[in-house]
Design a protein that fits this description.
Structural class: alpha/beta
Strand content: 15-25%
Bound molecules: magnesium ion
Largest sheet: 9 strands, mixed
Distance between the termini: 13 Å
Number of helices: 9
Radius of gyration: 18 Å
CATH topology of the largest domain: Rossmann fold
Helix content: 25-40%
Number of strands: 13
């Protein structure tokens, strides 16, 4: 572990049902670990299916000022001036630089609506739902549900029919889209995923720090690509104490605890083992 002292640690984390508790969206159980990494100046990169507006809210709430990845790898938002070198691919958007990796939301909606009409009228995406309906399904407040509805690169949807879902997956694949399972919803996206975004950020941090050690924490199928892209991957328990069986990866650490509780334990034990702090 001695060699690790020379490596800068970068943490990538999912939010829903990982750092944020499934029902209450509380991160209190992870507070000691959050304090520790803040004190040590370790970058914590949110890598979520949430929108930019929602993620900005959580960045502020947790006082985090690092880059973040939204809508399942649809885009990477970087604070202006964060990396002291020019960023190819990045566009300036207000106080952010943005690297866009996803497909436009309108195209995703078009596909979902065609599936509704041809396969199953009960299919419902966020674009079909009122703020009230999203509030009921997620437990979010109406204000936060409205932020969740402002989508750019990813359409969350519900579908309770396996056959419809498998036809949708086939059709999506043919046009370069894909469907992944999140903590609450299925997600329709373009060719992007959290892993592609993580690999881009790893390259940027390598340029900044030289030798880096990356870790990631998630709970669901849509975290698999992120978990596969880092040096050390942690899967937290779902709120019912189970693990998402769709996440299979060599070397994956199964954390003994759900959501933020597991998150905190994983981070504390990582740094205890690394004797970093
Ligand atoms: Mg999740």
């Amino acid at each position: 572990m001695e060699a690790m002292k020379e490596k800068a640690v970068i943490i990538f984390s999912d939010l829903d049902s990982t750092l944020l508790e499934h029902h209450s969206y509380s991160f209190e159980a992870a507070r000691p670990a959050l304090d520790l990494i803040k004190k040590a100046g370790v970058p914590l990169i949110f890598c979520t299916s949430k929108t930019r507006l929602e993620t900005e809210y959580w960045q502020e709430k947790l006082d985090i000022h690092h880059p973040f990845v939204v809508e399942n790898g649809g885009a990477i938002y970087l604070p202006a001036g964060y990396f002291p070198f020019p960023l190819a691919q990045a566009k300036n958007r207000g106080r952010w630089f943005v690297i866009e990796l996803g497909s436009p939301y309108a195209k995703l909606r078009q596909f979902l609506v065609s599936c509704q009409q041809q396969l199953d009228f009960r299919l419902r995406g966020f674009g079909d739902m009122s703020v009230e309906e999203i509030t009921v399904l997620t437990g979010l407040s109406p204000t936060k549900a409205a932020l969740a509805r402002e989508r750019e690169y990813d359409e969350p949807f519900i579908c309770d029919d396996e056959k419809t879902l498998s036809i949708m997956k086939e059709r999506a694949k043919k046009i370069g889209f894909k469907i992944l399972g999140g903590s609450r919803f299925y997600h329709l996206t373009g060719e992007n995923d959290k892993g592609k975004a993580v690999r881009i950020l790893k390259e940027l941090y390598s340029r900044l720090y030289g030798n880096i050690m990356t870790i990631a924490l998630g709970d669901s199928h849509n975290d698999l690509a992120m978990l596969a892209a880092v040096d050390k991957a942690y899967l937290v328990q779902r709120h019912d104490g189970s693990y998402d069986r769709r996440v299979q990866l060599k070397g994956l650490v199964y954390v003994d605890g759900p959501g933020p509780e597991g998150w905190g334990q994983a981070i504390l034990s990582f740094f205890a083992a690394a004797k970093q702090i």
